[in-house]
Design brief:
single chain; Rossmann fold; 7-stranded parallel β-sheet; 25 helices; 18 strands; 51% helix; globular
């Protein structure tokens, strides 16, 4: 239960903000959310299931609401608050604006820090080796000697790290670092070891020390899942000691699914597996004890067995893949003939048998390599092996351990027999063309609700999930299914409307259109219609469903009307937005053309956007193997994937797209939808009813 003291502290904090912030006006939606979050986390609704899912419309001030609802309670109960986001932009807003503001103006005494994944930090020892004048030392770190430009960058990094002018994280380096270069010097869990004295001052470990002192941790969804996969409490605090706030929560199911997938190339895997025997022999030669000889020998034998099995897989795929691809192409003319998904996740018996053997053999390899790795670490701690000799071996072994873990995960998912009670795994293969042909084998879960329940919901002290668009068709049901939450399991749900005056500030227009988007003449109709809807004095954004259609329309309008259109993809996103803002600042109009990625996270408040045009409903055609497998599973259960998957997802995306227009309470403008199916199809009214209550001007369609 919430004590009177905590309630009073929250009220005083909110009141203090009002006193310190000019023109602050209390919002009933915000105060309601603060109370609901605090009561849920305190266990007033359910003592064991302290979970609340919130859809908070634009302008409700959800970051302040969840901060005030969670932080005072966490401080009182000696818990941490972990705020997880899906985007860097929101992380930066929290650590540079929202949390400092709360700390200063709410009379709350708390510390906060941004927590990044290990690979965002440089490894001090790897960097030192990389700038060593000893060519042999450079060879330990790099497969190939760095070029002159890379060497200058590395030297500059080393100097900045040494003199303290750089803290060692990738994001704060003053210029972009090539991925291939950063990959060689980044920290990794196997080679950056705190218990070795030389690593105690590594940027990653120094950054991790701030976790202990911080009351609030700002993280991203991937880091959250990385910690949970390890059992929780390995990177972040224990789940039982945390109140999690999952902002942009509508991304969590997909991020979880992607995180749980695995892929392996057949020939490529055989190449790096051949190196395992060599690394085992080199580690064994450094260790004086005979205990390293046996695992090194077994590692070599097991690797050879795996390579033999992989050759069988490669021969089978070479013989059968052309038939698979032809079969797939005959089912779907739009499908890439180089990709094949196994129906219902069912593999040919030969592949499943090999998968079982490869799972067992790779598990043994992991055991042997981990044993050698730990023996070498022990030898370093005991002073039996010099660190400069062991470090490159530890780094290489660590990299190969990670590859083996992924390799084992893929074959485990291929060997697994799917439960009849749950969704099967999606399993597919793809032919890769390059210097030499190869096959990429992949697997992914279709549904991840059970994973989130097992790793997070059942273990966390409390969870707040929030987003501006989390419902679909005005219901939480779709998200509940995706995330593994129940409507009657003690979890709480709240939808809070935006305080914006949608009725008076925005008009939703559906003009009369002759053709549906699937018609061949629709693109030409867009070319003919847009000049009637766009003024060159407008701040206009036109959203398209495909790049090719956007580019064709832009080309036609530029040639015929000489329009100065900024088109997504022709320049960087930031360049296009800066150009748009500069034109508006000079009193000129500006026209932006973008695709689906411009419909979420794009913030153009005030006069930066007054005319929003959406050319087509944002239907997501199931083209990825995972989406196809999910649709297949729904059909197998007697459902309709279009109505149960496609329409709910379209509803969320349409709300997000329309949400680009009004960003502040005083913003005004027009939204024009050019898809007549909103009027002519049965599902159209459901999609329209899920939108905010704009004033409407809907034309009759033939």
């Amino acid at each position: 239960m919430l004590s009177d003291k905590i309630k009073q502290q929250i009220r005083q904090a909110y009141k203090k903000i009002g006193t310190n912030l000019p023109n602050f006006s209390p919002r009933k939606q915000q105060t309601f959310l603060i109370a609901e979050i605090a009561k849920t986390l305190a266990g007033e609704y359910d003592k064991t299931r302290k979970i609340i899912t919130i859809e908070a419309g634009t302008g409700t001030g959800k970051s302040l609401a969840y901060s005030l609802g969670a932080i005072p309670l966490a401080l009182k109960r000696n818990k941490k608050v972990c705020i997880s986001t899906a985007t860097v932009a929101l992380q930066e807003q929290l650590v540079s604006k929202d949390l400092p503001f709360l700390n200063k103006n709410a009379d709350l005494d708390f510390n906060f820090t941004l927590v990044k994944g290990r690979q965002r930090y440089v490894c001090r020892q790897k960097l030192a080796l990389a700038v060593s004048s000893d060519d042999e030392q450079i060879g330990f770190t790099f497969a190939e000697k760095p070029n002159a430009s890379d060497i200058r960058t590395l030297a500059e990094m080393h100097k900045a790290l040494s003199d303290g002018s750089w803290q060692g994280d990738l994001d704060s380096w003053h210029q972009p670092v090539p991925h291939y270069l950063w990959q060689q010097i980044q920290s990794d869990k196997h080679s950056c070891l705190k218990h070795i004295d030389e690593h105690t001052q590594c940027p990653f470990h120094k950054a991790r020390e701030t976790i202990e002192a911080a009351d609030v941790l700002v993280i991203n969804h991937s880091l959250l899942l990385a910690d949970l996969e390890l059992g929780g409490g390995r990177i972040l605090p224990e789940p039982a000691d945390c109140y999690y706030v999952i902002d942009e929560a509508h991304h969590l199911p997909k991020v979880t699914r992607d995180f749980s997938s695995a892929s392996v190339t057949v020939k490529g895997a055989a190449d790096w597996l051949a190196k395992l025997k060599d690394i085992g022999d080199r580690i064994s030669s450094q260790i004086k004890t005979r205990s390293a000889i046996n695992p090194a020998l077994q590692l070599g034998d097991d690797c050879q067995d795996i390579i033999t099995e992989l050759n069988k897989v490669e021969q089978f795929l070479t013989a059968n893949a052309p038939v698979y691809f032809a079969e797939q192409a005959s089912k779907n003319a739009n499908n890439d003939s180089q990709q094949y998904r196994f129906e219902n996740g069912i593999l040919p018996k030969s592949i499943k048998n090999w998968a079982e053997d490869l799972t067992d053999a790779s598990k043994k390899c992991l055991s042997h390599l981990n044993k050698l790795y730990n023996l070498l670490m022990e030898a370093v701690k005991e002073g039996e092996v010099k660190l400069y000799l062991a470090e490159p071996l530890l780094a290489e072994a660590g990299f190969l351990i990670q590859r083996l873990e992924n390799f084992n995960a893929l074959w485990f998912m291929y060997a697994k027999t799917d439960s009849e009670k749950g969704a099967p795994l999606a399993r597919w293969l793809e032919k890769l063309d390059g210097k030499r042909q190869d096959f990429l084998l992949s697997a992914s879960p279709i549904e991840v609700g059970f994973t989130l329940e097992d790793m997070l919901w059942s273990k966390a002290e409390g969870v707040v999930l929030c987003s501006a668009t989390i419902r679909a068709l005005n219901s939480f049901d779709h998200f509940c299914h995706q995330a593994g939450l129940g409507k009657n399991d003690g979890s709480q749900y709240q939808a809070v409307d935006s305080p914006f005056d949608y009725q008076n500030n925005a008009k939703l227009v559906i003009p009369k259109m002759r053709y549906e988007p699937s018609h061949d003449n629709f693109t030409q109709e867009l070319i003919d219609t847009l000049p009637k809807l766009v003024s060159l004095d407008d701040a206009c954004l036109v959203l398209f469903a495909s790049y090719w259609q956007m580019e064709r329309v832009a080309k036609a309008l530029r040639e015929k009307h000489k329009w100065p259109i900024s088109v997504q993809g022709e320049h960087s996103r930031q360049f296009i937005l800066d150009l748009h803002k500069n034109r508006i600042a000079k009193g000129k109009g500006s026209i932006l053309f973008g695709t689906q990625s411009f419909s979420e996270g794009l913030d153009l408040p005030g006069d930066l956007l007054t005319n929003l045009i959406i050319t087509k409903l944002p239907f997501a055609v199931p083209t990825s193997p995972v989406e196809e497998a999910q649709a297949e599973y729904v059909t197998a259960k007697g459902g309709n994937p279009f109505m149960s998957l496609t329409i709910p997802e379209t509803s969320k995306k349409l709300v997000q797209s329309c949400g680009r227009l009004l960003r502040n309470e005083k913003d005004v403008g027009t939204i024009t939808l050019l898809d007549k199916r909103l009027v002519t199809k049965r599902y159209g009214s459901e999609l329209l009813n899920s939108l905010p209550p704009f004033s409407r001007d809907i034309s009759r369609q033939d």
